[in-house]
Amino acid sequence: MLVSNLRKSVIKPINIGTTRRLYCSSSSTTTKQRRSDGNTFDVAIVGGGIVGVATARELLMRNPNLSLVVLEQESEIGMQQSSHNSGVIHSGIYYKPGARARLCTQGCRLMYEYLERNKLPYERCGKLIVATTEEEIAKLEMIFKRGVDNGVEGLEMLDSEGIKRIEPHVSGLRAIYSPNTGITDFGLVAKQLGKDVQSLGGTIKLNFKADEFDYNQQSNTITIKSGSGAITGDVVAKFLITCTGLYSDRVAVKSYGAEQPKIVPFRDIYEWLMESGLPKLALKHWRRGVDEFVRDVSPAAFLKTLTPYMPSLKVDQIEYAGSGVRAQALGSDGEIVEDFVFDQPPNKPILHVRNSPSPSATASLAIAKEIANLSESKIKQL
């Protein structure tokens, strides 16, 4: 079954804009200084990816007098998953009912509104999900029903002639057409959100690697220490939110979170093997992993998987491109954790985003609202 994001050129990706650098110092101050005592803040958000800065923006819009800091270990906002992904604005077709489906469909709408309002580059290019065999049609109908149940707007089921009307280069028996799937540069979006945080009075500290977390029961505060980053020192917060993507399990455990779920497999190979759930996952899906590897290194093998859908495609039309990264939670039983996961350690002013895989970039503005709702009672007490 082919999933194809439709672009102006079938083979060549369109240029949707050049990423602009977010200029701010390693310990940037803001244009609207909020009440804070040096390095003491009402809220600290660890992680300056798209979810972290979207959450900071949402909290400041709801609470204009809040003193808030975003702590990011890199030298710029959004340097990891936020700028290393497919760039797809997902409409929410595939996901099982739950937070992931709900926040994706909400987030898709919010993202388009945000892109339009801030004049950021995007294309609502649409997507075809194509079945080329009778066996795949049943799966296609299941996906279509799930998309409708999730509230995805504008879905159409097309026959072979309908496919050709949308994309003449693609062949298939039937296809789902999703007109509201699109593409954008989420790294650029993250940087704009960072600028919003600063204009709303928030502080962004770059090159701050959060190494240690100490909870003071008497003052009910968290001290966040950076000892190994370019910037060293302490930040004290009355409420802590972690949105650390690839590092979410490590940071959560350091800051009083549970051991599970773990994030795999985006670490060095030794640590992959140490994760209790990974061998079970590998045994279950080893053949698919081998096939993926072969397609990655062999243009001919990659072409072979595409020609049933695009018979006119030639090997010289295939180009190598950079791959993305994805933080995916895995249970100790070897099963992938499909839904978004948030947890709050008991009796501590902390909220962890433990699992926010794709479509978290699409859903980031909706995830931010979810986190703000979960944090509301604690923040009102500050």
TrEMBL record:
GO molecular function annotations of the record: (S)-2-hydroxyglutarate dehydrogenase activity
Catalytic activity: (S)-2-hydroxyglutarate + A = 2-oxoglutarate + AH2
Stretches that traverse the bilayer: none
InterPro entries according to UniProt: FAD-dep_OxRdtase (IPR006076), FAD/NAD-bd_sf (IPR036188)
Named cofactor requirement(s): FAD
EC class (word): oxidoreductase
EC assignment: 1.1.99.2
UniProt entry keywords in alphabetical sequence: FAD, Flavoprotein, Oxidoreductase
Record domain FAD dependent oxidoreductase: where: 42-268
Family: Belongs to the L2HGDH family.
Listed name of the protein: L-2-hydroxyglutarate dehydrogenase, mitochondrial
UniProt organism field: Heterostelium pallidum (strain ATCC 26659 / Pp 5 / PN500)
Classification of source organism: Eukaryota, Amoebozoa, Evosea, Eumycetozoa, Dictyostelia
